[in-house]
Specification:
Elements (H helix, E strand, L loop, with lengths): L1 E6 L7 H11 L6 E4 L20 H12 L2 E5 L9 H11 L8 E6 L7 H13 L3 E2 L5 E2 L7 E2 L2 E2 L2 H21 L1
Parallel strand pairs: 1-2, 1-3, 3-4, 4-5, 4-6
Antiparallel strand pairs: 7-8
């Protein structure tokens, strides 16, 4: 399985980025997890620019998505919804239909009871672009900043939960084929 990991955070030391880096580190044999790193470089979405040739950063984003078997998102919540830069990334996928039918999931690392606005918006956008949301692979796993060391989640219970997440994700992909 080739999994594309997409963080909605532009903060280098975010818990969302650390969680996805940990998912990449824990990838089981036969699976590859690629961390998308171009969020900050994406131009603002403009439908007039969404035609051949698209900006190079958009072409790269779409290529990475098209080569992935599935996608995993982790995003902070800003002002009750998705960060603007992350929504911008999603907007660039609408016209290409590159996410259509693609299996997707998310990990919410916010404190208990937080992040629901962002996740509701994410689910709405993913539904609009016809992504295939794997509900059982979407999890809440609070990750506090003090659980992160050297850019990865160091707390053993959370690392174990992320290792188990891989098993769930693989099972969901097999079931959905």
């Amino acid at each position: 399985m080739r999994l594309l990991l997409v963080s909605g955070s532009t903060r280098k030391s975010s818990t969302n980025n650390a969680t996805l880096a940990t998912v990449r580190e824990l990838a089981p044999a036969g699976s590859t997890a690629i961390l998308y790193s171009g969020l900050s470089a994406l131009p603002s979405f403009n439908p007039d620019d969404d035609r051949d040739p698209v900006p190079a950063a958009i072409a790269e984003l779409r290529e990475q998505i098209s080569h992935a078997d599935a996608m995993l998102f982790s995003t902070p919540e800003y002002a009750g919804t998705l960060p603007g830069s992350f929504k911008n990334l999603l907007d660039w996928t609408v016209g290409s239909e590159v996410v259509s039918g693609k299996p997707v999931a998310w990990i919410n690392v916010a404190a208990p009871g937080r992040g629901r606005g962002a996740l509701a918006t994410l689910a709405s956008v993913l539904g609009y672009i016809d992504a295939r949301i794997l509900d059982e692979a979407c999890i809440d796993l609070p990750v506090a900043r003090d659980m992160v060391e050297s850019g990865i989640v160091a707390s053993l219970p959370e690392r174990d939960a992320l290792a188990r997440w891989w098993v769930t994700m693989q099972g969901q992909l097999e079931k959905s084929e």
